[in-house]
């Protein structure tokens, strides 16, 4: 799909490439425990009823706000006292029902959110401290303050709060608010994950990063040595010249060179010290590593569609949205085919209970997302799949992404557009343990600006990987492209991305982990798009502000499939 802003030019220049400005993929997720088709249909009907309910809630009611719930009156012996007010993320409607206080939703300014969370953060609550860090990092209502985010994340991380530990790792990985340090990032990811320091998974990743850092330091050290040698040679020549012609100017040049040599020597000493502090290359026991690596990818035993290696995963639900026929924008070609096939595949092969919505307007979309909280329990899994038009707007230095419902108007009129922030805040409040948002749309990568995960890139997806990942919450995004347009066709009735996504899931017969699924999809999409002289590179990221804790998403096929 291409962008709306350039769609007229592109449509006339490339008539065979229809733009799939599909904004982010909505929801799909939790494995059904039902064994009969009748029970499956009943579960789907219940899901449809819950997701479509909601009465005549206003737009404001559907937004998630930072709410201060009144304290409770308690009795301790003869003394009566009131507990402090409790901050929480909930909808505006729920906040009013609880008698809470909130500021009406304004996507341009969230500065007041600090007033809600800061008192609890200052009292040492790690969850509140993490919220404060996320507010500073996002720069809600102002420019991001990464140094302040670092301080608050560290307070919560040192208390063992895994969400803060993960967030701190991302700051180290990107070098925001602190000097970039991949090894420190890995170490905080390890702690968030719950990995012991001597684990094979962590040591393998750490060794790779240590060698990369060692190579970088060696290269810089050679450069410093070369500069020092050149300066010393010039100093020697200048000293000889001074013996013959003693001038003030030559003396000043010599003194300047000496200062440069001293500075470079200090920098060289710091580099040498940094290299000495790196662990020696004896991290991984070769026999143990070979045993771990011998386990084939995704070859995990499973008893039924809701457990892996005897560990229960909870139920799987899916909310699938396909917007194809638009009221004021150009219609698309493939979303209905994409989501219809996906619905059938998830139900029959993976035991999902699904709800599919076609050609949804903004109210329908917002209600469906809002009502997920009525359906999901803390152990459940949710897959979000959205196909339809998408758009981006630039505010200051920041690009913001939007889903475009079927009643959306052309830019700059964004009245009915759904901001990414609406989705992110709802993902933060829903109870599901694992959430994957799959987005086949223009600018779909804008749902998250987080880095690629170091441990994801280094993991071998063994049984150990699954064992450590399953207990952790996940909020992940797989997008059909980055912050650019993507193709709406090219997949024989499907988009290029959807065809790869569907084919791989249909052919798969083992437990497959989200990152591994992504890597297979990415290669296919890049290759097929390139054949059409089009650059399209899918992305896989965490959605940090939604409560990610280095968990993952698992597709578990039913045994009878």
Task: Briefly summarize what is shown.
By secondary structure, the chain is of the alpha+beta class.
Structure, explained:
- The protein has 561 residues and is of the alpha+beta class.
- The protein contains 19 helices and 18 strands.
- It has helices at residues 7-13, 37-52, 59-62, 92-97, 113-122, 126-138, 146-157, 162-174, 182-193, 200-244, 248-277, 286-293, 335-350, 362-370, 420-429, 454-458, 463-469, 496-507, 514-530; strands at 27-28, 64-69, 73-76, 79-82, 86-91, 307-308, 311-312, 316-322, 353-358, 381-387, 390-395, 398-403, 418-419, 434-440, 474-479, 512-513, 539-542, 554-555.
- The relative contact order is 0.16.
Structural key phrases:
alpha+beta, 561 residues, 3-stranded antiparallel beta sheet, 3 domains, disordered N terminus
From the spread of the alpha carbons, the general shape counts as: globular
Q: State the end-to-end distance.
A: 33 Å
Query: What is the CATH architecture descriptor of the largest domain?
Result: 3-Layer(aba) Sandwich
Strand order within the widest beta sheet: 9-8-1-10-14-15-17
Could you tell me the CATH topology label of the largest domain. Answer: Rossmann fold
Main sheet record:
7 strands, mixed
**What is the overall pLDDT average?**
77
Structural class comes to: alpha+beta
Count of helical segments? 19
CATH class of the largest domain: Alpha Beta
Low-pLDDT windows of residues: 1-41, 280-305
What number of structural domains do the residues give?
3
Indicate the proportion of strand residues. Answer: 5-15%
């Amino acid at each position: 799909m291409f962008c709306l802003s350039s769609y007229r030019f592109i449509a006339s220049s490339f008539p065979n490439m229809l733009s799939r400005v599909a904004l982010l993929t909505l929801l799909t997720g939790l494995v059904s425990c039902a064994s009969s088709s009748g029970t499956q249909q009943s579960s789907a009907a219940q899901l449809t009823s819950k997701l479509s309910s909601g009465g005549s809630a206003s737009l404001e009611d559907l937004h998630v706000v930072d709410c201060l719930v009144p304290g409770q009156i308690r009795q301790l012996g003869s003394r009566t006292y009131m507990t402090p007010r409790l901050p929480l993320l909930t909808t505006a409607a729920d906040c009013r029902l609880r008698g809470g206080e909130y500021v009406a939703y304004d996507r341009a300014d969230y500065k007041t959110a600090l007033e809600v969370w800061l008192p609890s953060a200052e009292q040492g609550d790690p969850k509140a401290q993490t919220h404060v860090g996320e507010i500073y990092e996002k720069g809600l209502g102002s420019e991001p303050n990464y140094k302040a985010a670092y301080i608050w994340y560290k307070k919560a991380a040192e208390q063992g709060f895994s969400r803060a530990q993960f967030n701190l790792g991302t700051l180290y990985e990107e070098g925001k608010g602190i000097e970039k340090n991949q090894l420190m990032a890995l170490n905080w990811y390890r702690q968030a994950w719950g990995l012991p320091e001597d684990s094979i998974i962590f040591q393998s990743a750490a060794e790779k990063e240590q060698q990369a850092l060692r190579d970088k330091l060696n290269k810089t050290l050679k450069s410093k040595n070369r500069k020092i040698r050149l300066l010393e040679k010039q100093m020697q020549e200048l000293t000889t010249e001074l013996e013959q012609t003693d001038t003030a100017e030559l003396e000043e040049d010599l003194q300047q060179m000496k200062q440069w040599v001293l500075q470079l020597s200090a920098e060289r000493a710091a580099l040498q010290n940094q290299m000495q502090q790196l662990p020696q290359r004896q991290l991984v026991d070769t026999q143990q590593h070979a045993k771990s690596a011998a386990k084939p990818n995704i070859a995990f035993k499973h008893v039924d569609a809701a457990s892996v290696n005897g560990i229960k995963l909870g139920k799987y639900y899916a909310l699938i949205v396909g917007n194809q026929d638009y009221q004021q924008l150009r219609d698309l070609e493939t979303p209905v085919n994409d989501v219809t096939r996906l619905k059938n595949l998830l139900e029959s092969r993976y035991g999902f209970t699904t709800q599919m919505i076609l050609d949804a307007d903004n109210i329908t979309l917002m209600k469906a997302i809002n009502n997920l909280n009525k359906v999901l329990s803390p152990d459940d899994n949710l897959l979000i799949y959205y196909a339809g038009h998408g758009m981006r707007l630039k505010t200051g230095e920041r690009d913001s992404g939007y889903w475009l419902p079927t009643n959306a108007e052309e830019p700059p009129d964004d009245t009915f557009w759904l901001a990414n922030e609406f989705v992110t805040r709802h993902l933060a409040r829903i109870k599901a343990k694992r959430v994957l948002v799959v987005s086949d749309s223009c600018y779909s990568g804008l749902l998250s600006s987080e880095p690629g995960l170091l441990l994801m890139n280094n993991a071998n997806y063994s049984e150990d990987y699954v064992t450590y990942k399953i207990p952790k919450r996940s909020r992940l995004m797989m997008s059909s492209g980055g912050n650019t347009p993507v193709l709406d066709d090219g997949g024989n009735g499907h988009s290029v991305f959807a065809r790869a996504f569907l084919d791989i899931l249909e052919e798969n017969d083992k437990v497959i982990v989200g990152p591994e699924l992504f890597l297979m999809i990415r290669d296919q999409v890049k290759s097929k798009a390139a054949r059409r002289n089009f650059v399209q590179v899918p992305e896989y990221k965490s959605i940090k502000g939604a409560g990610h804790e280095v968990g993952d998403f698992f597709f578990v096929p039913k045994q009878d499939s």
